């Protein structure tokens, strides 16, 4: 993920996520649709983040 280094925004792994309050009114991208990703996305939405989710494929 070479280009990730030049991304100006905040990048965190699910293990570093505490709660969605700090992302209120911000655009957030959740990568992955596993249990952690979906729980984090729900918390972000419930706390006012503008949340998008991307998944690798439609099949699980």
Query: End-to-end distance, in Å?
Result: 23 Å
The main sheet comes to: 2 strands, parallel
Give the fraction of residues assigned to helices: 10-25%
SSE string: EHE
Model description:
The protein is of the alpha+beta class and 60 residues long. It has a domain at 20-60. The chain has 1 helix and 2 strands. It has one helix at 35-46; strands at 27-31, 50-54. The protein has a two-stranded parallel ribbon. Strand 1 (27-31), helix 1 and strand 2 (50-54) form a beta-alpha-beta unit. It is globular, with a radius of gyration of 12 Å. The model has no long low-confidence stretch (mean pLDDT 93).
Keywords summarizing the entry:
FAD; 17% strand; flavin adenine dinucleotide binding; flavoprotein; 20% helix; two-stranded parallel ribbon; indole-3-pyruvate monooxygenase; alpha+beta
Q: What's the helix and strand layout?
A:
Elements (H helix, E strand, L loop, with lengths): L26 E5 L3 H12 L3 E5 L6
Parallel strand pairs: 1-2
Give the gist of this structure.
This protein is an alpha+beta fold and 60 residues long.
């Amino acid at each position: 993920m070479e280009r990730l280094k030049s991304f100006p925004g905040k990048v965190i792994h699910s293990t570093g996520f505490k709660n969605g309050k700090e992302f209120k009114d911000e655009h957030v991208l959740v990568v992955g649709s596993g249990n952690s990703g979906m729980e984090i996305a729900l918390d972000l939405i419930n706390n006012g983040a503008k949340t998008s989710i991307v998944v690798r494929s439609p099949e699980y």
